[in-house]
């Protein structure tokens, strides 16, 4: 029996292991793990400490039952973690799967991670948000005026998102309110000046609010058989997507922007060379905004740049949706390999998620729904390609997760 297991058995009255299981479940949910993977890791931890705890894990809460004592613990999911918190959570969880940390100490560490203040200043995080907007604008090859407008509008949006005093009820309306405000400014600008692609432009300042990751995770959970978690997450993300599309459509209607001004592809494309700097700029923005630990900066940039261009190359020989899926699957598999073999052992999620957010077609879904609301057929037709891209990514990411134990020394993360 390990020292941690002895400590666990010695404090059975407090049932620290039961509390630990619920704390780990909550932390992994806030770190954007699919339910199936969270369940697998929790079972590993339970076995490592020699307990008999059953868990039921859902998208927003989890229930743990200690079968011998009949004690029950419930945890609700909080807000999504920053990347520095995700990295610290992964590092601790990897130790817990080996039973290497006393439960009481691990509980304190998990709670300390949840309360950790951002290592980046507010100014740097706002700058990071603006760089993300710039990276997306360059990916779309937006015109110079449109790119500048997207970056400028993203600054106040970032300040609002990082404002900690927003009431809970108002926070739930933020995707709608910020999309409406962004679209209203852009629509007014489009009416009084020559501005191409106003719908796509409206996406860029609020792109981090688009639940593309939630849609993909929901598909992964549904495919893995986690029907309740997957279905509830899917409904939740679709509601957010619909509310944002409604905010955009409402702004266009108030301003009176004519249908012939709604275009999916800008008429004045930026030079092709901007694509070479688009992914690195977005990755740097993510580093600052999401507070990625310094030891993972280079990995983040390399993965974003490499996956972006691999997708571009694959699109020359296959459907764009399949190309994106294969590129994301390979990216995830390489993240597992880097986590195992690289000296710094970079966190899988931390180096993978920025690339995922860059590539996931959540923005296409937003534009497609907006097209349906505004009766613009060209925009609405994007819906089918969006669904195919999401499904392709979900399946390839699941395959990568299955293959990971066979190409690495460890199935999970190491510090």
TrEMBL record:
Belongs to the ThrE exporter (TC 2.A.79) family. This is Threonine/serine exporter-like N-terminal domain-containing protein. Keywords: Membrane, Transmembrane, Transmembrane helix. It comes from Gordonia hirsuta DSM 44140 = NBRC 16056. Residues 20-254 form the Threonine/serine exporter-like N-terminal domain. The keyword Ribonucleoprotein does not apply. One of its GO terms (molecular function) is transmembrane transporter activity. The chain crosses the membrane at residues 144-163, 170-190, 202-222, 234-257, 269-289, 296-314, 320-341, 348-375, 387-407.
């Amino acid at each position: 029996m390990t020292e941690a297991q002895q400590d666990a058995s010695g404090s059975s009255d407090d049932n620290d292991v039961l509390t630990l299981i619920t704390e780990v479940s909550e932390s992994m949910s806030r770190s954007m793990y699919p339910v199936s993977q969270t369940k697998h890791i929790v079972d590993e931890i339970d076995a490592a400490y020699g307990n008999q705890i059953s868990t039921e894990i859902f998208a927003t809460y989890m229930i743990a039952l200690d079968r011998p004592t009949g004690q029950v613990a419930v945890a609700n999911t909080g807000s999504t973690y920053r990347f520095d918190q995700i990295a610290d959570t992964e590092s601790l969880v990897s130790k817990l799967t080996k039973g290497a940390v006393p439960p009481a100490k691990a509980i304190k560490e998990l709670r300390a991670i949840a309360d950790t203040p951002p290592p980046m200043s507010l100014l740097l995080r706002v700058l990071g948000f603006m760089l993300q907007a710039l990276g997306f604008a360059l990916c779309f090859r937006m015109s110079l005026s449109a790119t500048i407008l997207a970056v400028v509008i993203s600054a106040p949006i970032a300040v609002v998102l990082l404002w900690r005093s927003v009431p809970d009820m108002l926070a739930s309306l933020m995707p709608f309110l910020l999309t409406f405000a962004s679209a209203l400014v852009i629509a007014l600008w489009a009416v009084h000046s020559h501005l191409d692609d106003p719908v796509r432009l409206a996406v860029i300042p609020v792109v981090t609010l688009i639940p593309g990751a939630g849609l993909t995770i929901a598909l992964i959970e549904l495919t893995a058989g986690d029907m309740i978690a997957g279905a509830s997450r899917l409904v939740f993300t679709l509601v957010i997507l619909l509310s944002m599309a409604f905010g955009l459509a409402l702004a266009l209607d108030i301003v009176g922007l004519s249908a012939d001004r709604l275009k999916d592809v800008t008429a004045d494309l930026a030079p092709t060379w901007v694509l070479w700097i688009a992914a690195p700029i977005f990755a740097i923005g993510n580093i600052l905004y999401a507070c990625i630990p310094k030891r993972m900066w280079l990995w983040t940039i390399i993965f974003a740049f490499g996956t972006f261009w691999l997708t571009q190359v694959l699109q020359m020989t296959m459907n764009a949706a399949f190309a994106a899926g294969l590129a994301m699957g390979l990216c995830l598999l390489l993240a597992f390999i880097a986590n195992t073999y690289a000296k710094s052992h970079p966190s899988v999620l931390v180096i993978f998620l920025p690339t995922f957010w860059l590539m996931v077609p959540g923005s296409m879904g937003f534009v497609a729904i907006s097209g349906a609301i505004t009766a613009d057929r060209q925009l609405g037709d994007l819906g089918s390609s969006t669904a195919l891209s999401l499904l392709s990514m979900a399946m390839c990411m699941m395959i990568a997760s299955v293959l990971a134990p066979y190409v690495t020394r460890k199935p999970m993360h190491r510090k």
